[in-house]
Structure formats: structure tokens, C-alpha cells
Amino acid sequence: MNDQLELYRRMHLIRGFEDSVQALFLKGKVHGTTHLYSGQEASAVGVGSVLREGDRVAGTYRGHGHALAIGVDEQALMDELLGRATGVCGGRGGSMNVIDLEHGLIGCFGIVGGSMSAATGAALASKLRGDGGVAVAFFGDGATNQAYFAECLNFARVERLPLVFVCENNLYMEFTPIEDVTAGAIEDRPRALGIHTQVVDGNDLWAVQEGARTAVEVARSGEGPAFLMTMTYRFVGHSRSDPARYRKPGELEAWKLRDPLIIARRRLETEHGVTADALDRVEAEVGARLDEVVERALAAPWPDVALAGEFKE
Amino acid sequence: MNETIEFRDAIRDALDEELARDERVFFFGEDVAGAGGVFAVTGGLRERHGARVFDTPISELALIGAAYGSAVSGLRPVLEIMFGDFLPLVMDGVVNQAAKFWYLSNEQAPVPLVIRSAVGGGGRFGAIHSQMPAAWFQNVPGLKIVAPSTPADAKALLKASIRDDNPVLFLEHKRLYSVKGPVGRDEVLPLGRAHVVRPGSDLTLVAAMRNVGDALEAADALAADGIEVEVVDVRTIRPLDVETILASVGRTNRLLVVDESPRSGGWGAEVLASVAELALDELEEAWRIAAPDHPIPYSPPLEDAFFPSATSIAAEVRARLGVAAR
To answer: What is the pTM of this model?
Structure first.
């Protein structure tokens, strides 16, 4: 499979994974709450596509897409959401708290803005060690009004940390339009600190990839952090309990015409010479793979209730 | 060979030795490198260790994240939070990130970070630079809380904290910084163990940090009245060494906890609860001396009356046990 097709497969995997999570939630197999990434796939996959071994990523509570984009195993992730022993965190974490160091995922953060501070630390470790690694913080538009944003932008700039801030702007902080609660333009904040800043179409895989490549190069060069805002839209409510009645009339329909999967498919066919058959095949393979993942997850063992120790000995 | 040095210098020496011993260790905070710290603890470290000792902006949320993120990436950060009263600003990073990671990740990697912070009252710093934050963090599984009372303990416990694979909150009582005492060269004390500082048969007095000195002074005065007090220095507030305290209570049948936190919900309450739960039938007396449930006052006579002292401890013990001062 060529690289472009592999990225298309990942985006489809995320969409299909989230559809499966939704279905399992309705059946009572996924517990508590979930925050789905549907509609934002190009953002995580585009950024993930320019990272390399040794880079580290901090995701958010809307983190299934971040995890899958950087290679976390879909079976281990699904098992985690079902609370099974075979989950990526043994069922201890759940949907909002996925950690997979083997794939560079230092955590997904349930407190808005926490990802920025954790990635700041990972970037500091890379700088002090001189290991050439870059850290990426994914966060939403709502997090830009947290103190974490102001503090981490400044600290990372002062220390010239190899850190990429990826603001996934889906226009709503939870249920509230971001413009109703935000003074000025978000991108003016990093700009004011002299931080390399870009705003890209977050639903176009190639626009995200190009922006991310530049941002990662800036960060890796030792010049300091970079800021990338991916303009996107979530196709589902904020969380399980949200019917998203706050959407403006026609807004969802307009964004669905700009579905990142549709855009990617069209560009692959018209600009990259990929045949419709090849794309259909990828979609069918992803569907079959997810059927298998769900079946195995449902059959996976529950964790042992023997309680583990509090501390590392 | 032991030398006699100030508590602050014992802390500096522990940092210096651990920075030299392990290149994964680094130390950062506000005013710690160029200026050497507002309590003059960390002078000279930057000159000796270069880029691994550095000053930061006043950005506690970013700093705790920097500590956490670098710890789970393989380094061993030591972060200074200037006053314990500023610790609420790092609560998210400590409670929701650092203390959770080992368990939630299904034990993928340790979180070896230390937060040093100057705590406690008696310095005329007022309500928001004098508090004892131990109890704010005591209900957080996955976090260790270390609370030394002497220069020797400060050095040996800080070295142990830096070598520990868990997040550690290291509390330095600001009224101890100028106290002098003999300090060993390479001693490392285990975390989670209390220390019987003075043996006695009539009463077990459990204390920490500055109150250990107060307790020893009170014990001397009470000995003259015929009351033999066994003083237990907890050294670590979480995990609490209940075993050592129970053994002492088994000898004395009476327990007093001295805790300079506000009375309701202080760490001393946990000591009393643990002993009551496990050894109620051995107890003839059990109580605590703590600070009142209101903010710490500034005015010297008000502040002096607010905190437990050697005199107030001795007086309360005499009253409780029905013994007159000789």
C-alpha cells in the first residue's frame, strides 16, 4: 500500500472505529462517556504522518483519533474502551485516559489544557537530552482560554523547546461557540510571542500534512516551538449526552460536504491517480478489520479484581 | 565523618550530590539558579551543574507539566515551588497527571519527580505564605509526602526522594532552614518509615517537621514532672508508617498527635484514625493538638498563639493527664 493510501486507511479506521464505539456504547458495552473524533480525522492523521520514532504525543479526552493516528493498536484501544484486561492500559484508563508509551503517546488528558503541559515536559526532556525528538500537544479551541496555553507558549518559547502546539479548532468549546467566549483571534496569541504560527484547513489531509511538516521542522531545528491551528468540525456531539442542538442551521450539512474522507478520496483519485477500486478495497478492508476487532474485544477477558500496589516499588 | 551544617545547606548538598551522581536529574524553579532561591538554599548549583539548573517564569501550571512530562520521558526532575501556599496552582499536574500515571498506564513507566516547597508558619508571612499543605495532598494515592525535621534527615530523605520512582512532595519547614545539626555524607533514609526520636513509657507523641523540636523540648519539661514521653517523628506523611506508631502506642497506651495544620482534616487526624481503627483497646488516651480552624494571622502575638509550641504542648499534656507542673 502506498503512503497516501495508508493515510486514507488510517482516516477510515478512525471513522469506523468511532462508529463502532458509538454502537457499542448504545449497547452498554462502552461505559461512562466517550468523546468521538468523527469529522476531525485529517487533523491527527496529517500531523501523525510527519512524526518519527522517538517523538512524543499528548492527546486529549477526544483522543481515540490521536492514538490511532500514531499507531496505537486498534484492538488494544477497543479492548481498553470495553474495560478489558487486554486493553492498552489493562482497562485501568478508559476512553479519556489512554497511555501508550511504546507508540509515543504519553497520555490523553481529561482536564482541558493538560496535554500542553505534559508535552512541554516531553519537549524539555528532548532538549536536555539532545535526542532530536519533538513533542506534539493536541488540544481544542476551548483550551486556548486555559492558563496552560499562555504559560506553556511562553515557557516553550523562552526555553526554545522542540514542541508543536496543534490546536484543533472545531468551533465549539463543548456546547458553546468559541467566538462567544474568546477575545481576539486565537492565532494572534502565539504570534505575539514570536512563535511560528500557521492556520490550515483541518479537513484537508494534505493541507494539515504540509503545515505539520513545517511546524515539526521548526521545532526540531532548535528554533523553538511552533503553533498549528487545524480548522475542523466534529460531526457528533461533544460527548455521549450531547445532541448538539446549538449548531447553527445548515452548519453540519455544509461541513459534511467537506468531510475529510470525501476530500481525501477526491484528491487521491484526481491528483494522485488512485483508482476507485483501490479506495473501495481499503474501505472494505477497514470494515472487515473493525468487525473482527469488535468481536474479539467483546470476547476479551475482564481484569483481575486483585488490586495492585499504589507505588512503584 | 559528620559535619554540622544548616538545614538549608543540607538540602543544597543533597541536590548537589544527586545532580552529580545522575545526569538524568535536573533542578528548576523560580529564582533558584541565578539568585540561589528566596530562602538561600540553592546558591552555586547552576555554576556546578550548568544547564541542568535553571530559572523559570512564574508559571506553575507549565512547570508541573514540565516536571511530569519529562519524568515520564525518562528524566528525574526536581521542581521548586517557592511557597507551599502556591501548591494549589500545581494541583492538576500532581493529582490528575503525576500521581495517576503509574496506575492508569498499567505500570508502563515510573514518574520520578520531586516537588520541593517551603511550608509552615511562625515566620510572620501571613495567611497565604505560612500554610501547611500536607493534608491537601494526603488524600492522593500515588503521591509520597516527605517532611524532614533535622538537617541530617533533610539531606538523607531528599536523596531518597530524588532516587524514588514515584512523585514525591518534599516539604521544607521554613522555620527549620537556619537550624544546625550534624549531617552524614552519603546517608540515604528509606521513605515511609517513622523514627522514634526519644524513648518514653507514658505517652506517644507523634509530630513532624518543626513540631518535632517542639515535642522534644516539651518532653524534657514533662520529664521533670515525671511524665516520660516517647517522641515519634513520622518523617513521611504519605505513606504513613502506622506500624511504628502502633508499636509505640503498645508501649505507652497514650497517643498525642501534634500537627500545625488546621484541626479539621489535618494529617494528624489520619494518625488518630489509623490507631483507633487498629488498636482501640490499647488506648487510654488519644487526642491531637493542632492549629485553630481559621486563617493564619499576621500580628506576632496572634500568630504565636495560633501554632502549637513546646510550652502549649507541655501544658496540654499536664492538663490531660492530670499532672501538675513541678
So the answer is: 0.96
